[in-house]
Amino acid sequence: MSSSLLFDLQACINTNFVIEGYARRCSEHILSILASTGIALLDLDHDDPVASTIFDMEESAHEAGTLIYTLLDQCSADTMPGKNLPEKISRLCALFSEASGWEIVPEVSPGIERALLSENVLMLSLVNLLAARVQLSPSAPIHIQFLLVRKGKDDFDSGLVAPDYRDGMAFGLRMQFPEVARQTLIKALQGKAVWNRATSTAIDGLSLLLEGVRSQQGGVSVHSLSKSEGAVIELFFPQTGIDESELSAEDDTSSRRASDRKPGVLFIDDDPLVCAVTERILARKGFVVHTAESGAQGLDL
């Protein structure tokens, strides 16, 4: 992909570009999440007079928007029949990596292939990557981990995970961004950021991730760990698609119904002031908020 097209791809995402043709295969919750950020999904034909008005812009931007549509279309359920989850994840990451020029590093936890992660959640992961749109260097890798989270503190990355899922099972998606994104997110959460393109995309991206989790009755962890690790955003979804008969008796008896869980946010940073400010901001959004300094040990959340 040429550098000019990559720039236009970024620009059209940031100017609420309309992605045509995907609405009829997109679930309602994804549509509502995207609509909340101003990104519209319309089922229009290029020859339609309404579509002609919408696409009255630079041809390169139109091409970039079509590219986004193509990515979504190629990752839809009807174009990857019979493939297991790791294959779908690998394909999804490869497509987005090719389009964006960013290095995508997918990791799939053991056992997730039998969890039958729903198409909606898999698609939501791509939508989140598109809509989070933090200003990244094309050479900076994005690390994505698809996790099947099990009961037990040792299975929860030392216990630092959305607390409402500590006793059950959930699907997780972790996205890691470089230090520049960490700084932007912290400033945005503190309300101290200068309003510019990079800041607005960080705020929009964080809001989208939180709303995505809310719609899925899930939980989210926003880790702002250190300068070396950058920013890590984790999403946890209900145990959709898991065959309860395959679980051990211990897991089965201790698992809570997804409907009983409330959306929770765990924000971790090495600055207690950042934690305090973040807690107030996210609480106003209606989330159950827990904050902790990243050096804390033995968290009981």
Descriptive account of the structure:
- This protein has ten helices and nine strands.
- The protein is 41% helix and 18% strand.
- It has a domain at 107-293.
- The longest helix is centred in the last third of the chain and has 19 residues, at 197-215.
- With 301 residues, it is an alpha/beta fold.
Give a summary of the structure in a few sentences.
The protein has helices spanning 3-14, 28-36, 49-54, 59-74, 85-100, 119-132, 179-190, 197-215, 249-254, 272-284; strands at 19-20, 41-42, 104-108, 142-149, 170-177, 219-226, 230-237, 264-269, 288-293. It is globular.
Number of strands: 9
Class inferred from helices and paired strands: alpha/beta
Shape: globular
DSSP strand content: 15-25%
Determine the mean pLDDT: 42
* Main beta sheet: 7 strands, mixed
Helix content: 40-55%
Strand order within the widest sheet?
3-4-5-7-6-8-9
* C-alpha Rg (nearest Å): 19 Å
Number of helices: 10
**Measured distance between first and last alpha carbons:** 46 Å
**Spans where pLDDT lies below 50 across 5 or more residues:** 1-81, 110-175, 188-265, 292-301
